[in-house]
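anyone seen this seq b4? input:
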Amino acid sequence: MSKKTKLKIGEFSKMMQVTVKTLRHYEQKGLLLPDEVDEWTGYRYYSIVQMQRLNTIRGLQRQGFTLEEIKELLEDGAQMPSIELLTQKIEDTERQLQLLMERRSQLLKWMDSHKRIKSMEKFSIQSLPEIIVASHREIISDYSALGILCVNKIGPEMQRLCCQCPPPGYCFTIEHGKEYRTTGIDIEYCEQVEEMGLDSNIIQFKRMPAVPKALCMRHVGPYERFYESYAEAFGYMEKQGYKMAGDPRTCYIDGVWNRDDPEQWLSIIQIPIE
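predicted toks r here
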């Protein structure tokens, strides 16, 4: 009679190309218990038969079955899922595939929009469509306070209100002061959302009317140098015979949230013109 082969957990791990941590996890889940545990040393030993059981577990995992589902199957003595369970998995997979395709489509649109912004001429004339925005107006101490305001106050409130923002995302600010101020800046932050919501004491929803014609100018660099771009934009408008026809918007593409170097910050100044 041949002697049954016993493999230490490390040997079994190496041969089956699975970590000891994973084997211990399977043991805790009751999926793959050691064939034998030495009561004196605590050493775990695995048998040849358990190699096939491990292969079955891993194969089912690759097909999207959870450890709980696999455990239930093996406890029932089944080596293959039932037709009903397979049908359910196929339907789940199709739903996930649809979600992934939608995500891919949105990411491609986002990337295309970002590339167009990056490659756009310094000046361009564009129309701005009517949109719904979640807005917040507040007097802030200085421009650096805007980022903190968005992260700590506006963002959490929009999340609480379940605001859905269409990709690639469009947010901008409008200054309501009649003159330049270094402190006590009256600023309104607006972010495009998919639908009107219920106003709160922080967020108000409103429709921004379409702008038939706007001069759009790329600004690369910190916000403290917006004046340079405004001077250039108004010089361009004067040469082309345009006049300002509404409050300018400052649209933020890259900033402190994803670029450490202010010299790489990208904004778009949008000035309604006629």
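The mean pLDDT is 83. DSSP finds seven helices and eleven strands in the chain. kinda curious what u guys think
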